[in-house]
Amino acid sequence: MSAKVPRRQEITSSGMADWATLQTDIVGIIIKKLAIPDYIRFRAVCTSWNHVCKDVSYSPRVDPWLMLPQNPHPLGAQFFCIPEKKNQNIRLPSTASFFGSVWAPVGSLNGWLIYFSQTYGTMQLVNPISGSQIQLPPIGRRTFAKAKLLEMNERNFIVAVLYGDEKGYKITRKGSNNWSSVESKHILDDIIKHRGRLYTCDMYGTVELWAEPPRAWPDEEVTHQWRFRCLVETPAGDLVRVKRQSQNKFAVCTLDKGTFSWVETDNIGDLALFVSHYNSFCFPAKDHPNLKANCIYFIDIHNNLCAFNLEHSTKELVETLEIGPGRNDHYYRRPQRDQLLWFIPSLK
């Protein structure tokens, strides 16, 4: 007597298993273990699997990626997936215009990248996974220090631009045909939207809440040699300030909701911070291979991917990045390590 075929998995005339008939719950378990690029290929296999992928309860794994400098050939954008320690190549929409020494990535949030063309003085938002594009109002050809995507959802988006030699910032949002200018007392290093309000960090380390009446927290120490400060929101909704104290050392403070003061900490629990010139974010390390909790991931002066352990104040080499020669074209010049920005892929 022949063995029974497992339920919902049939044998084709060629003697091969018909994987399209796998049970839905089994397919769902597989989906949850896939990274987004593998998920996209998975759902293209057959109609049955694609139908299961449309169920919102079955979502692929989300990993932090590091966007690497542009390749010399227009094949798309290259990312380094930290948990899997391998590169991912994604073809962007309109790649001919993006990689003709015209467009450069200058920011990222919620699966979207900000691209700037100094040649044309224009900026646009691009989702490399879905292929969606949003054109922003013209901003001019002047080089800026940082562009921040403060909000991105189905209802609205907000983009701010900071200048390294000018006080204040410019801001635009969905439905706007221009950029609004906002003044500040000093040149700003970073800006973030947290709990519906804007916070900025200036060149002296002062963090300011943009509300009435204004409130500011001065930094304890003014340093410029390794000047890097950023504001990050945690998954739990807390606000974190990260300051670079030396070449390979960082300090972290959290905003106490009760006293409204900054409290330095060497323990952020099961979280990892990813910091760079253009964007920074917080990410849960649990269930992600090769991710270390209570660490700050950054690029050192040798273009190595490193992790700074907050508890022990030690630096660890994570990966030596093969990023090739730095860009030095007429349109966009900046230090090689500042070409790298963090990115979390999204299907939305």
From TrEMBL:
Q: Which residues form the F-box domain?
A: 23-57
Q: Any idea where the KIB1-4 beta-propeller domain is?
A: 79-309
One Pfam family named in its UniProt record: F-box
What is this protein's record name?
DUF295 domain-containing protein
At the highest ranks, the source species' classification is: Eukaryota, Viridiplantae, Streptophyta, Embryophyta, Tracheophyta
